[in-house]
Design brief:
By secondary structure, this protein is α/β, with parallel strands linked by helices. The chain has 7 helices and 7 strands, in the order αααβββαβαβααββ. The protein is globular and about 60 Å long.
Length: about 230
Amino acid sequence: MWQANPTWGSPKIVAELAMLGIDVAKSTVEKYRPKRVGPPSPSWRTFLDQHARELVSIDFFIVPTATFRLLFVFIVLAHDRRRIVYFNVTEHPTAQWTAQQIVEAFPFDAAPRYLKRDGEGIYGERVTRRVESLGIDEVVTAPVSPWQNAYVERVIGTLRRELFDHVIVFNERHLKRLMSSYLDYYHPWRTHQSLDRDAPNGRPIPSTEPGNVVECTAVHGLHHYYLPKAV
């Protein structure tokens, strides 16, 4: 598994094996990867635990193309299950465009109670009015404090390390296809330590005895997940 997925740490491999019904100590695979950074402080964890089900974060990140254009990816992350509930891509982000994305992200009374964002000028008064019209309270982070929006910053880092550091994006349509393909893997298959080694959509653990394992490819072979082989 580690050879096929060199970006995986030992907890990720342990989680993947657990989803196959195979219990392996973390120390067994620890030598392949360094230890991860420790958990957040108790006060920050308490805040997140109290509001996770009612909190989403939004942010932009930039992806360069093969022709040196810069595309802006807007994502909306739900904290409770680390699900990327919405994304879109544009070359020219504006406050009006961003406000429209927020409306499209939360149709039919699906709006959360809190929306966390940074203080970038692109959001502006137009976005604030649109958020208020949906009955959402904004939580704006302090300047130059990305750690206050740690979940969405972390998922952006994951997208870079596990997708965009390994591909060349040709255009906006290509980027959208890549993102959709990755999310088809991310939501049902990618395990998270913060979710008790489960995937955002939930992955059932096989009830059968551990046996032969089948390796399945995802994201055009860039990632893999594992299933018990049918007898």
